Amino acid sequence: MVRMRPIQSRSASLWLLAAAVYLAAEGVTALAFPGYSYATNYISDLGVPDVGLFQGRTMDSPLHVVMNVAFVAHGILFAAAAVLTARSDVWRAGVRRWFVGLALVHAVGIILVGLFPGSQTNASNGLIVFHVLGAAMAIIAGNAAVIVAGVTLLRRGPRWLGTTSIALGVVGLVNLVMLLVDSNSTAVDLLPDGVWERLAVYAILAWELLVGTVTLATRRGRSAVRA
Known about the structure:
Helix content is 72%, strand content 3%.
């Protein structure tokens, strides 16, 4: 039975909870949002309290508070899980610092997304800069943290999980680049913005679900063998 030393059961539970809170809130608020499109709307549109047009998209999210609370909760859970994960003695000091640092940047970023919605009101008063900065921090640092975790998993965890982790982080970053290229170019129009953004964000959530599930399944397997 493969040992999952870099990721402990407590942190695995937090990874799973972080992803579950995020996806559940997204699903519930999207259902309450008239005409919401997973393809053309941004995820953060679900947290906008204003009703009306913004950047060509209709905003009408009755449960915006739910999504914004989920953004903040995910940041807190992500940071807590990362700190617990990094307590394992198998992490090299430099890699540990990078992983925890990136996780904290992700946490601060997604909390900013929840506190400063991407709304017309915030665009008018200048606070939207915190939303944009927060989104960039969350996506870039989150995917980078996944890649760093993958490096350690290559050494001390299942190699396939390390390889998959690195691949997920790279996919997330590539899709962020494609979002920026596609949305700012008239020559490139491959996919709707919402698809690019979700692929960039869901790479992080997929990693949380993957490592959480594999870690807990491995632990149960070891317990069954001992029994």
